[in-house]
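Quick one:
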Amino acid sequence: MPRLFTALEIPRDAALSLSLLRGGLPGARWVDVENYHLTLRFIGDVEGHLADEIANALDRVHRPAFSLTLAGVGAFGSKKPHSVYAGVAASPDLLALQGEVERICQRLGLDPDPRKFTPHVTLARLRNSSPADVAHYLSARGNFAAMPFRVDRFVLMSSRESVGGGPYVVEEAWPLARAEFGGSRTGTGPADVSRGMR
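Output:
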């Protein structure tokens, strides 16, 4: 069964900026450019009926579109670094969207995410990279900033276990800043979520 998570997609221009950060770090497995994304909420392996409930609940999210800027780089795992990432400039709209998605997931019985939400785009997963090499990589790229881009939808993605993450598939997409008369998500439709994932 695939793993589910909600995310923001990274548009091509921003992805190209991120791709310039590849290289120069021993032990790094670089994420393919087409697999860049910003995770809002990791959901994990869930049964088909719960996947349908989550999709239906997310259909009620009404948030405005907003602008987002990727800026700075960092690493997870201070003593034993396991990944490097591009950070995100402060965005109240992003935090509000993530918070609503988190509340929806908890209302449907999912455990709260134990980690504090740190918006980021994973650049590479590390294997036996030394803290000194990681520190050097980060200091050389600390002034990274991409051009702002507009976030006009969020998505439900699935992934299958593989080395380095991906490939990721968009299962559902929900527009932001919908018209007053409402709207509906695009994608496979709720009934197809579980069918396609079993």
